[in-house]
Amino acid sequence: MLGLDFELDGSENDFSLKDEYSATVNVFLHFTVLGTIALATGRPFLFPSLGPSAYLIATGEQPRAEGAYHVIGGHTVAVVGGLIAYALVGNQASSYVVFARPDPAFSVEIVYLWASATLAMMLTTTTMLLTKTNHAAACATTLIIALGLMGGLADSAVIVAAVAVLWYLHDKVISPLAQRFGFVPRDARAE
């Protein structure tokens, strides 16, 4: 029977089922909790940029990207950058609406979205570098807002709250349990 500690011997393709199960269970627990909160509140506690953040946190691939300052701070910077850009140049356009039209080519609304996305990325990149809240996954958050996919103060608060729940759940609950039971994934890039 194959145990959870199964590892190949010395080749470049070494893997540990314990590592893969650990990361997979981590992500399952993260999204189960956030999905339950979304179900109970009717608010979008699940959104695309949580995926890369959950992966980084669960796999331990980038220790610097795991800390609250980087994860929560990076997404907060991204939310603010996206809100500013969308307010200044988004002109209430939404990617959902614009690209659902039969022939959206050369639409002025695409120009608004393009400008909003570009400005949001510029603001987010500069601010994350200045504040050292570098968390690449947050760049997806700024685009979600700048492209009119989510927005406004209520959705922005939900985004930051969801990221805080993700980080807190991992750091204060899942990670200590993983340490206790020996399910701590190794950094896949460290090999």
Automatic annotation (TrEMBL):
Source domain of life: Archaea
TM ranges: 27-46, 67-90, 110-131, 143-169
ATP-binding in keyword set: no
UniProt keyword Transmembrane helix present: yes
Limits of the HPP transmembrane region domain: 16-150
Sorted UniProt keywords: Membrane, Transmembrane, Transmembrane helix
InterPro entries with a match to the protein in the record: TM_HPP
Protein name: HPP transmembrane region domain-containing protein
Lineage, opening ranks: Archaea, Methanobacteriati, Methanobacteriota, Stenosarchaea group, Halobacteria
